[in-house]
TrEMBL record:
It comes from the Bacteria. InterPro entries: Kinase-like_dom_sf, Prot_kinase_dom, Protein_kinase_ATP_BS, Ser/Thr_kinase_AS. Residues 448-467 have a biased composition (Gly residues). Its EC number is 2.7.11.1. The chain crosses the membrane at residues 350-371. This is non-specific serine/threonine protein kinase. It is an enzyme of class 2 (transferase). Residues 427-438 have a biased composition (Basic and acidic residues).
């Protein structure tokens, strides 16, 4: 509860506007409390949103909040569509506006994801198609939602999908005699995880921004995490603007559609009507076809080239047309194709993007008013940073709230000159790649043939002549190093007891150690283990170096010191 807040904690039983009897509290947001109420005039259950009041709020601030709620009601009422929340009435209590809406009998998509986990691609596509149809109607009516996210999508038990909370929506004509924008100049309003690149940079927004937000919502629904979540607001905004969309691994036939919906440039995204058609096509794929596509639709993860790479993946492995070894393989279309001038130009673009974000977040009167849900706070652990096949690892840089060139996907030192033009073999992925490995590490009889002896010192490099491999982990201070974990992995204590999991993405590590136990995944095998804090809340546990990008079999990961 905010400081100075004057809540109606005894709201149960109150009669609002002379007809709406409060039965229970349904939720609470940044502007209002939502009550379940009984309409004593019409004898029906309704949802009533009441403006929250603050004893320390100035009169202009309260007036601004009141106008926001009035515009929310007008925006929702203007869109005549079964997929948009119906507004029944607007009233006032003690000078504060009330919005009386239909009561949807069912949870939000956010509730479902939190309680049941990620959804199947066809189910997510079906939900997305219905929301996109509602957005198309809203855009046709001149309304931009601006806050599409799982918490604002309600799933009625009848099968109806309802878009709600138009609290920060904008309209071409607000209908209140004013054309002023309630968002202050330079202020970012919305939920950070689902913010489109143009909004992250403070540029003009339009219907394409809602399309992006729904794309990000569906990505989170099937992949289990939002695509660009990082460790700070600044690094997250920079990732949204500059980094390619992490390769969807559990999305199957929905993956290519997500790529379309989340194109960096708004003009490259389909409009809401076309996006609905794309989603409907995925939702209508028969079960057998969907299962087959899900198995083969994601290209295997590309592994960075090092001095002792294992043999290449045979031609034809993975999805048809996916990037892989051999001439003529199509390159991933992630906004960073070979024609863009190579890593130097891409790095410059990332730095420019970071500078643009810095301008938006500068202290000179510019602020961030990012909306958060309870799920955001509960799931905002380590970010997922899975990448497009063939992209170099992206680092969250100085992980705790800073952004510099290490946020650049191309700044990873494992990119070595001309090697970029010839993709290295990928680590094969199973359909369940998002799940941690359950295979218990077996005691190791010693290094595999050709593994080589490990070098001493703190470099973590391999010995045996020639130059040492370039480091793939970067120091972030405090004795921590950021490394890229390419799939979720089980975590263990030093004596081999399994205790939790570490999710895929950019994670920090302390050091690495040869524990004398072997972990193997397909052709990758290692006796080295990296020390970290896992996503299950365990401190100073180990995951196998097998799951860290850039290392070789039976060798420590370059750039991570020995314990």
């Amino acid at each position: 509860m905010s400081s100075g807040e004057n809540e109606h904690t005894d709201g149960i039983g109150r009669l609002l506007a002379g007809r709406y009897r409060v039965v229970a509290q349904l939720g609470r947001g940044g502007m209002g409390i939502v009550w379940r109420a009984h309409d004593e005039v019409l004898g029906r259950e309704v949802a009533v949103k009441e403006l929250r009041t603050y004893t320390d709020a100035a009169a202009p601030e309260l007036a601004d909040l009141g106008r926001r709620m009035q515009r929310e009601a007008r925006a929702a009422a203007r869109v005549r569509h079964p997929g948009v929340i119906a507004v029944h009435d607007v009233a006032e209590v003690d000078g504060r506006p009330l919005i009386v809406m239909e009561l949807v009998d069912g949870p939000s998509l956010d509730d479902v994801l939190r309680e049941q986990g990620p959804r199947e691609p066809r189910e997510a596509a079906e939900i997305g198609a219905k929301v996109m149809d509602a957005l198309a109607a809203a855009h046709q009516a001149g309304v931009l939602h601006r806050d599409v996210k799982p918490g604002n999508i309600l799933l009625d038990r009848s099968g109806r999908v309802v878009l709600t909370d138009f609290g920060i929506a904008t309209m071409e004509d607000p209908g209140d005699g004013s054309t002023t924008h309630l968002t202050r100049s330079g202020e970012l309003v919305g939920s950070l995880d689902y913010l489109a690149p143009e909004r992250a940079q403070g540029h003009d927004f339009g219907p394409a921004s809602d399309v992006w937000a729904l794309g990000a919502t569906l990505y989170a629904a099937v992949e289990g995490t939002s695509p660009f979540r990082r460790t700070s607001t600044w690094s997250t905004l920079t990732a949204i603007v500059a980094e390619p969309l992490p390769e969807p691994r559990a999305s199957g036939p929905l993956g290519p559609v997500l790529q379309e919906l989340m194109q960096k440039q708004p003009q490259d995204r389909p409009d809401a009507d076309r996006a609905r058609e794309l989603l409907e096509a995925v939702a209508q794929i028969p079960d057998q076809d969907a299962a087959t596509t899900n198995l083969r639709g994601s290209a295997p993860k590309q592994r960075e080239a090092t001095e002792r790479s294992v043999p290449a993946v045979p031609p034809g492995f993975g999805a048809p047309g996916s990037a892989g070894p051999g001439p003529g393989a199509p390159q991933p279309q992630d906004g960073a194709t070979a024609s863009d001038g190579g890593p130097r130009r891409r790095k410059a673009r990332v730095l420019l993007a970071a500078a643009a974000v810095a301008v938006v977040l500068a202290a000179t009167g510019v602020s961030v008013a990012l909306l958060t849900d309870s799920d955001d706070s509960k799931t905002a652990g380590r970010p997922s940073a899975s990448r497009e096949a063939g992209d170099s690892p992206s680092s969250a840089g100085p992980s705790r709230g800073t952004v510099d060139a290490s946020d650049d996907p191309e700044s990873d030192p494992t990119q070595q000159g001309d090697q970029q033009s010839s993709p290295a073999p990928g680590k094969p992925e199973r359909p369940e790649a998002a799940e941690p490995t359950k295979k218990a590490p077996a005691p190791s009889p010693g290094p595999t043939e050709g593994g080589g002896a490990t070098g001493g010192g703190n470099s973590g490099g391999t010995s045996g002549g020639g130059s040492s491999p370039a480091p793939v982990c970067s120091p972030i201070g405090g004795g921590k190093y950021n490394c890229e974990v390419w799939r979720a992995a089980a975590s263990y204590t030093a004596d081999g007891a399994e205790v939790g999991i570490l999710k895929a993405g950019t994670n920090y590590f302390y050091c690495q150690q040869n524990l004398g136990r072997r972990e193997t995944y397909d052709e990758w095998t290692n006796i080295w283990w990296a020390k970290t804090d896992d996503d299950s809340g365990n401190k100073n546990v180990f995951i196998s170096d097998v799951y860290i990008e850039g290392g070789d079999n039976d060798a420590p990961v370059p750039g991570l010191p020995e314990c």
